[in-house]
Design goal:
729 residues, alpha+beta, Beta-Lactamase, six-stranded antiparallel sheet, six-stranded mixed sheet, 49% helix, 23% strand, elongated
């Protein structure tokens, strides 16, 4: 028996030691736990209350233990629901939340409600039933989510709004609803009066804040006055827990009448400049929140950039309207100037000729030229001077045009010309390079020196006339050399025809040329549109919207448009071997791509050369190749081909903006495609790109041969152009 008693005693000692260790471990866990751990019995009375619970809810262990948990941490409006749920869990042995993690609203000792995350564990202790709750304060996380939601709402609004007046009320509403503020105001700085004035207000619809809103709209704050003025002065966000107690808040009495207390605001900045202020009000007293102020300090800079961008766009539109008005005035003045030029050109005793620079063929000559050379105008137009055999010395001919090509002008060069009958005439020639229909031409004025040698009086008269013609020519060149040089070339060509053939043109023909002038002025506005188009792409505002269309017909139409726009300068051949005509893609993006590539191919090619557009199929991809025989692209420029406003070193005076290939690249990227280029200066350029246009598993049709439509149209247009010129003579 003594041995048995000793054994039992030892077992009791070990059991008690284990219990003491378990209790100590439990206590240590409860003390160190960051989450609140609360244990209640079946009646809802608190049995255990760890330090984290005391810190979170404001009740000490002594205050909490023995009291009903519902009275301590459950908001009054939810207590009855809590009690019913506890009773149901005790009586039925089942409930809907045990073993789950849920989010609910809790209440502190001071009555403040806040969000918590709750997990409940059911514990069976003999005949008793206990519940242990693990509670975590998620206020910080919820506030962060609300701040992020507000920030995203503001960013989304700024991205979609077309103006500040559209964006401002949406920004105020988004912030108020995301962060649970009741009223928002938007202030702009008036530079002329050095004050802030309210331009937009938003408040929750159910609140009656008319008096405060009216006073706010009619208020003007100087630097340092009121909450907006203080933010303006410091260029930093400000937070007032209770504006009714703030000594520098002129609207304090009205805020008290409308139960408005907490307020915060932030500057709308552009660099160090304050463009305005946004402030928000709450009907609660709220302590400053550094995270909110930091978030909206950054948002203020984004709104400042939004304002700057839209003000810049408005300035561009105003400038464009002003330019259109100025061009309209210049057009009327140009018509009058061209009428004078026409009379001077054909009435002048000096020889005058207009020659196309690319092939040195005559476009127009005056009566003095015909008299000296003894050729009729119809025999001269369309032919080159060397074909007419009017040069006495081939070296003079070569030097004259070499200098004109290298320097752009020749001044008072003595030459010898031969008439049709073989007589020699010394002349004093001056030449200038000008633009006609966006192509370089040469304006040549020559005086017959033999007449001057025969009579000094005639010489003096001729010199006076030459001086006057030189003045008219200089004024004309200055006008067409304006910054919108290319579209003015179109205007020049139409007004030239009107000036030269006014009495032989029908009313409809004159109206057509005037319409060309109007189109040219619109083209100058399109230069601005290219810049805006690139902005929209860079900003992500252009997207790919696929739809079904006939690719073969699309290519044909586009080629026809390019031939018409370029007056069939080059022939364009379509080689369509893609098989299937119907594709699925964004026709608008493809138009931007091919229109720019074909326009460049024609523009940088010699007149009469061939340009080809080839379309192939490779799986789902449509492969496009645009080939020309133009000036090519130097190797050092190819690496910068897709940089905005960069142009090749060899383009000389060929007009362009340097944006076409940038737009092509962005449109190809939007369509999920790739682009490549091969070019050699003087030997042309080939641009190839591939974009997915074909559906998977689509049936192929028979390959198509090269389309002769473009070539035929080009030949017809060229023949008609020469035929019309001869008829006008």
């Amino acid at each position: 028996m003594p041995n048995l008693t000793t054994t039992q005693f030892l077992r009791v000692e070990r059991t008690e030691a284990a219990l003491r260790l378990s209790e100590a471990t439990k206590t240590a866990i409860l003390e160190a736990a960051l989450d609140c751990i609360v244990t209640i019995d079946a009646n809802g009375l608190v049995l255990d209350w760890n330090p984290a619970a005391a810190r979170t809810f404001g009740y000490s262990w002594a205050e909490a233990v023995g009291r009903e948990m519902a009275e301590l941490i459950v908001p009054p409006r939810l207590r009855e629901m809590h009690r019913n749920g506890l009773a149901r869990a005790v009586s039925s042995g089942q409930d809907r939340i045990t073993g789950k993690r849920i989010e609910i609203t809790a209440c502190r000792k001071n009555g403040e409600e806040f969000p918590v995350e709750l997990a409940i564990t059911r514990i069976a202790a003999g005949a008793s039933l206990l519940f242990t709750g693990h509670i975590r304060d998620i206020s910080a996380r919820k506030e962060a989510e609300q701040r992020r939601a507000a920030e995203l709402s503001v960013i989304r609004t700024l991205a979609q709004a077309g103006s500040l007046s559209e964006a401002a009320p949406q920004v105020l509403q988004a912030v108020c609803e995301s962060l649970q503020w009741d009223l928002g105001t938007f202030w702009r700085r008036d530079p002329s009066a050095a004050v802030l004035h309210c331009v937009h207000v938003w408040h929750a619809p159910h609140l009656q804040l008319e008096a405060f809103v009216s006073a706010t709209i009619n208020s003007r704050f100087t630097l340092g006055t009121g909450l907006p003025g203080r933010i303006w002065a410091t260029c930093q966000p400000e937070w007032i827990p209770d504006v009714t107690q703030d000594p520098n808040f002129p609207r304090a009495s009205l805020a008290a009448e409308n139960s408005l207390h907490a307020a915060f605001g932030f500057p709308i900045r552009l660099g160090k400049e304050v463009l305005g202020v946004i402030e928000f009000f709450s009907r609660k007293i709220r302590e400053p929140n550094a995270e909110v102020l930091e978030t909206f300090s950054a948002i203020g800079s984004q709104i400042g950039q939004f304002i700057e961008r839209h003000e810049a766009e408005e300035a561009i539109y105003r400038m464009n309207a002003d330019l259109e008005n100025r061009i309209a005035e210049a057009t009327a003045e140009l018509r009058a100037s061209q009428e004078r030029f026409h009379k001077a050109f054909h009435a002048s005793p000096a020889m005058m000729a207009l020659i196309r620079r690319v092939d040195l063929r005559f476009i127009d000559v005056n009566a003095a030229f015909c008299k000296l050379t003894e050729f009729a105008a119809g025999e001269v137009v369309g032919r080159a001077s060397d074909e007419l055999n009017i040069w006495i010395q081939t070296k003079q001919y070569q030097q004259f045009f070499a200098q004109l090509k290298s320097r752009g002008a020749v001044r008072e060069r003595e030459l010898e010309l031969r008439s049709l009958s073989g007589r020699t005439h010394p002349v004093l020639a001056t030449a200038e390079r000008i633009e006609v229909e966006r192509e370089p031409h040469l304006l040549i004025v020559a005086l017959d020196l033999s007449a001057r040698k025969r009579a000094e009086e005639e010489l003096r008269t001729a010199l006076v006339q030459e001086k006057e013609l030189s003045r008219l020519k200089t004024n004309f060149v200055n006008l067409v050399s304006h910054e919108f040089r290319t579209p003015l070339g179109v205007i020049l060509s139409s007004t030239d025809i009107l000036a030269s053939y006014q009495d032989r043109l029908s009313k409809e023909q004159r109206a057509d040329h005037l319409q060309d002038i109007r189109h040219a002025t619109r083209h100058m506005a399109s230069l601005m549109e290219e810049v805006l188009l690139l902005g929209r792409v860079e900003a992500g505002k252009m997207q790919c919207h696929p739809h079904s269309f006939n690719l073969n017909e699309f290519c044909k139409r586009l080629i026809e448009e390019q031939l018409s726009a370029s007056t069939a300068k080059c022939s364009v051949v379509l080689n369509f071997t893609a098989g299937e005509d119907t594709v699925l893609g964004d026709e608008g993006l493809l138009r931007h791509i091919l229109a720019n590539l074909l326009s460049n191919a024609i523009k940088y090619s010699k007149g009469g050369s061939d340009v080809s557009l080839s379309v192939f199929r490779q799986g789902r991809n449509a492969l496009f190749e645009v080939c020309d025989q133009g000036i090519g692209i130097p190797q050092q420029d190819q690496a910068r081909l897709f940089e905005a406003f960069h142009r090749g070193q060899n383009v000389r005076d060929i007009p362009g903006t340097g944006l076409g290939m940038v737009i092509v690249k962005r449109c190809v990227d939007l369509h999920g495609g790739t682009i490549s280029l091969k070019s050699q200066p003087g030997h042309g350029t080939t641009v190839a790109f591939a974009i997915p246009l074909f559906r998977r598993g689509a049936r192929k049709s028979a390959p198509k041969r090269k389309s002769p439509i473009s070539k035929a149209r080009a030949d017809i247009l060229m023949r008609n152009s020469h035929s019309d010129a001869r008829k006008k003579k």
